[in-house]
Every structure is written in C-alpha cells, then in structure tokens.
Amino acid sequence: MAIAAVMSVLGVWQLDVYRSKTAAATAGRAAIPAVPLQSLFPIDSGLPASAVARRVTVTGTWAAPADQIFVSDRLHEGRDGFWVVTPLLLDDTGASGTGAVMVVRGWVASVDDPAAKAPTGPATLTGGIASSEAQDSSGDINQTRILQSLRIPTIVHMVDYRVYDAFVVQTASDPSTPVAGTSSTALAPVEPPAPPTDHAGLRNVAYAFQWWIFAAFTLWMWGRMVLDAHRSGDPDHQPPNPEDASGTVSA
C-alpha cells in the first residue's frame, strides 16, 4: 500500500508538470508581440486556426458611418447592451481593390449612446483576432443594422467592399479613437479572445497514467497476496486427498 501511494503521488506530480508546461506555453503565446494583420493571412483567404486570438495592428481609414453595425445581447458588468462594430478600410490589403476589417470597438448600453457614434478619418489600432460566431444572423439585417451574432458571412452582404474573414477586438488605438476611459463618450472595452490552450508536455500525462496503472497493479497484487495468506491459514481449508480423488478408502 505504501508503494501504491508513492506511485499515485508520482502520477499527480507528472500531471502538475503537464499543467505547468501548458500554462507557460499558453502565456508565451499571449505574449507574442502584435504583428500587422496582413502578415498573418491575405484578405481573400479564410481565417487560419493559428491566427485566432493573435494580437495584430491595423492601419487604415474608418468606413462610412452608415456601414457601422451593432451586435445585441452582449453583457458588460452584468448589464445587457451592444457591441459596436465598425469597418476599417485598410491601407494595404496585398491585392487590388478596397478591403476592410471589422473592428469591435467597444460596448454600449444603447445604440443611441453618443459613444456609439462612428469615428471618421485615419486610425491605427491594436487588437486581438476573433472568429465568426456560429449562430446565423442572416435574417437580422434591418434599417438599424442590429445583428444577434458576430458573423462575417452576414456582414459581407451589408457592405460594398471585401472584408477579412476575422474580427479585430480593439484594445488600444491612437488618441483620436479612445477605447476606454473616464470620458462619458468613451466606449466600454470588450475583452479580446483568450489565446487557445497550448497543450505542451502531453508526454507527462502519459507518465501520470503509467504511474497510476502501476499503483493499481500493486494494489491488486497486494490483495491477491492477502487473500492467499488468509486461505493458507484457514484450518477448515484442507487440500484434497489424492486417495479420495482416486476412490481408494484409506485404512
């Protein structure tokens, strides 16, 4: 039992090593410096899984205010409201024609909030890449441009230019487009997506299960030994008489 206990502890230790390695690898991914969006994938390609949650920089000019949309049913500090999503026309999409990326600028309690007013002019900002949500919102297009989900396949039919297959959740910008602050006209910030878990050290998980299997086998062997010892010490438990088995009566 002592040996099995030690093996069980070793298994837990290996699992802790795996968790530590995974946390370190995930934190390292989150600390990767921001890169230009265009350097990760072109505008005409789908969003690669490796780009999700990456920190990027984008430079361009805000699109016409009429192109701004809102996404409903978004909570912020327990309050229901809207995400404000504005297209940013990029300076360089790597191909001919106008291209843009949809920027989640922040949260407001009402679409009539002055903070939701669409910005104009050039902008340079930093944010995290987010992918489209699964819920279909193609039937939500209306005059107020309010959608129930954040989906590029719906938005591409609402604008007259190409759009990146990704959203940028704004975290920082130049002074002309504040993200958050004490001003009453500032948008409440939206938390960018967390980087995917980097499952480093999977070998340690195998080691943990290996130790636990050894511990289980040790307990099974111990149980067999105890049972055999109990049977050998039982006075009522006698081995069969060979003569009885052959049908011969002893004198």
From TrEMBL:
<protein>
    <recommendedName>
        <fullName>SURF1-like protein</fullName>
    </recommendedName>
</protein>
<dbReference type="InterPro" id="IPR002994">
    <property type="entry name" value="Surf1/Shy1"/>
</dbReference>
<keyword id="KW-1003">Cell membrane</keyword>
<dbReference type="Pfam" id="PF02104">
    <property type="entry name" value="SURF1"/>
</dbReference>
<comment type="similarity">
    <text>Belongs to the SURF1 family.</text>
</comment>
<feature type="compositionally biased region" description="Polar residues">
    <location>
        <begin position="175"/>
        <end position="186"/>
    </location>
</feature>
<keyword id="KW-1133">Transmembrane helix</keyword>
<dbReference type="GO" id="GO:0005886">
    <property type="term" value="C:plasma membrane"/>
</dbReference>
<keyword id="KW-0472">Membrane</keyword>
<feature type="region of interest" description="Disordered">
    <location>
        <begin position="175"/>
        <end position="199"/>
    </location>
</feature>
<dbReference type="InterPro" id="IPR045214">
    <property type="entry name" value="Surf1/Surf4"/>
</dbReference>
<keyword id="KW-0812">Transmembrane</keyword>
<feature type="region of interest" description="Disordered">
    <location>
        <begin position="119"/>
        <end position="138"/>
    </location>
</feature>
